[in-house]
Design brief:
The protein has about 325 residues and is an all-alpha fold. Helices cover about 80% and strands about 0% of the residues.
Length: about 325
Amino acid sequence: MFLDIIFLIAGLVLILAGANYMTDGSVALAKRFGMSDFLIGLTIVAMMTSAPELVVSVTSALNASSEMAIGNIVGSNIFNILVIIGITALIRPIAVTRGVLINEIPLVILSSVALLVMGCAPYLDGGPMVLTRVDGIILLLFFIVFMRHTFASAKSAPANDPVASSASGFKPTPLWKAILITLGGLAGLVLGGQWFVEGASGLARAIGWSEGLIGLTILAAGTSLPELATSIVSATKGFSGIALGNVIGSNIFNIFFVLGCTATVTPLSFGGIGIPDLSVLLLASILFWVFGWFYRCRTITRPEGAILVILYIAYMTYLYLNLPA
């Protein structure tokens, strides 16, 4: 068990370091092409900070731990909305434009609905909950549509949009350096992901938790740390566009791309990840959209941020109270 904890911690350190370097390198590349803060957050930063989820989920699936792979994604997406948006709003209320509420956040809800429907379809027919290869391909098609929609919307975004504002006075990083930083981060992610999954699997067996529960809690929180750190730093520096886009993009990327790729490689059994967990994800996504529309002028306020964090604590309490004896 001690060795499992060492692997878990060492893997997490490598994942976080790798994600940090990949984010720095990819943002530097994106800035060279004049991308806006929100677009960078929605695409580049979201993908790079979701790289731990991609590595951990694919590695878990290839190691015959599909329950852990799905638990990691479901738990990460719940963590992203309830904890990251919650804490970010507590630090600085998050302004949300009408365009984001109409175009992007509904895609977060759609991704949650798609996962719930795909998981429930075989279950309602009396079979186990599973994501098939066909489901994986459908999710990847959704991702392609999302990317086309995102870049099409970015071309028509107004220049004075507070969420899609471009950074001025940016000093470009040399191209060779940006590429080197990105590749170095990728290497750390791959190695760290392998160690992290090995440690988590061993720890689950040692303490008697299911792999799904480990994925929903320890793996989810661990692999979401890049998103949390990126969003908090962005909020404290006043770049709410990056913080907001990061969470929206990460949640869409996690389901449409990460689960899409993983399920295409090998079908994924939900195992202990049930309808209650998928329902919590869907409700969190809807609440994210509702908070953006109401109370004050399209702003997620500090009280709303506190509500989100409290809901996450309540969900963790529910999981703890329902641990197998």
